[in-house]
Amino acid sequence: MTTEHRSLPNIILCGTPGTGKTTLAEQLADASELEHLCMGTIVKEHHLHFGFDEKWQTYDVDEEKVLDYLEPRLLKGGCIVDWHTCGIFPEELIDLAIVLRTDHSKLWERLEARGYSLHKIQENNEAEIMQICLEEVRESFDPKIIVELESNSTDDMESNMSRLLQWIDTWKEDHVN
């Protein structure tokens, strides 16, 4: 099923943990017709993993199971996929790829507040500084559908929400039969 057969777009929302993906995705889902798919939760609840990696304090994701779970939803459209990674998703099923960016000192504070270990905070801060998520999105999707958004404050969140709601409305207008 191609884009022209869907009445709602699919958005992938990427970024280093702590950049505000879930907060933005939840607010966007509440304000639109799109469904928020929080992949971290889905991977755990639906056992889409091989097990928990104690050293890295994360699940070892089974990408095949993730794709089997997501593909029918993406084919239907209307999804906001909230995850730190994007390389496994079929490009033709994603209409907008968003990368949230946060100043590394602000990110450090957010991760400390979550109770992350020092190792995990350092790892995620390095990933943000090195633009790991942004580079993965650039390698995975057409530059025309990539948007990089700052996510340092509530003002940024409000601006991002407004911009994304406008984009959704425009997408729907452009794809009405």
Automatic annotation (TrEMBL):
<dbReference type="InterPro" id="IPR020618">
    <property type="entry name" value="Adenyl_kinase_AK6"/>
</dbReference>
<feature type="binding site">
    <location>
        <position position="18"/>
    </location>
    <ligand>
        <name>ATP</name>
    </ligand>
</feature>
<comment type="subunit">
    <text>Interacts with small ribosomal subunit protein uS11. Not a structural component of 43S pre-ribosomes, but transiently interacts with them by binding to uS11.</text>
</comment>
<dbReference type="GO" id="GO:0005524">
    <property type="term" value="F:ATP binding"/>
</dbReference>
<keyword id="KW-0418">Kinase</keyword>
<comment type="function">
    <text>Broad-specificity nucleoside monophosphate (NMP) kinase that catalyzes the reversible transfer of the terminal phosphate group between nucleoside triphosphates and monophosphates. Has also ATPase activity. Involved in the late cytoplasmic maturation steps of the 40S ribosomal particles, specifically 18S rRNA maturation. While NMP activity is not required for ribosome maturation, ATPase activity is. Associates transiently with small ribosomal subunit protein uS11. ATP hydrolysis breaks the interaction with uS11.</text>
</comment>
<dbReference type="InterPro" id="IPR027417">
    <property type="entry name" value="P-loop_NTPase"/>
</dbReference>
<dbReference type="Pfam" id="PF13238">
    <property type="entry name" value="AAA_18"/>
</dbReference>
<keyword id="KW-0690">Ribosome biogenesis</keyword>
<dbReference type="GO" id="GO:0005737">
    <property type="term" value="C:cytoplasm"/>
</dbReference>
<dbReference type="GO" id="GO:0004017">
    <property type="term" value="F:AMP kinase activity"/>
</dbReference>
<protein>
    <recommendedName>
        <fullName>Adenylate kinase isoenzyme 6 homolog</fullName>
        <ecNumber>2.7.4.3</ecNumber>
    </recommendedName>
</protein>
<keyword id="KW-0808">Transferase</keyword>
<keyword id="KW-0963">Cytoplasm</keyword>
<feature type="binding site">
    <location>
        <position position="21"/>
    </location>
    <ligand>
        <name>ATP</name>
    </ligand>
</feature>
<keyword id="KW-0547">Nucleotide-binding</keyword>
<keyword id="KW-0539">Nucleus</keyword>
<feature type="binding site">
    <location>
        <position position="23"/>
    </location>
    <ligand>
        <name>ATP</name>
    </ligand>
</feature>
<feature type="binding site">
    <location>
        <position position="22"/>
    </location>
    <ligand>
        <name>ATP</name>
    </ligand>
</feature>
<comment type="similarity">
    <text>Belongs to the adenylate kinase family. AK6 subfamily.</text>
</comment>
<feature type="region of interest" description="NMPbind">
    <location>
        <begin position="38"/>
        <end position="61"/>
    </location>
</feature>
<dbReference type="GO" id="GO:0006364">
    <property type="term" value="P:rRNA processing"/>
</dbReference>
<feature type="binding site">
    <location>
        <position position="20"/>
    </location>
    <ligand>
        <name>ATP</name>
    </ligand>
</feature>
<dbReference type="GO" id="GO:0016887">
    <property type="term" value="F:ATP hydrolysis activity"/>
</dbReference>
<keyword id="KW-0067">ATP-binding</keyword>
<dbReference type="GO" id="GO:0042274">
    <property type="term" value="P:ribosomal small subunit biogenesis"/>
</dbReference>
<feature type="region of interest" description="LID">
    <location>
        <begin position="113"/>
        <end position="123"/>
    </location>
</feature>
<dbReference type="GO" id="GO:0005634">
    <property type="term" value="C:nucleus"/>
</dbReference>
<keyword id="KW-0698">rRNA processing</keyword>
<feature type="binding site">
    <location>
        <position position="114"/>
    </location>
    <ligand>
        <name>ATP</name>
    </ligand>
</feature>
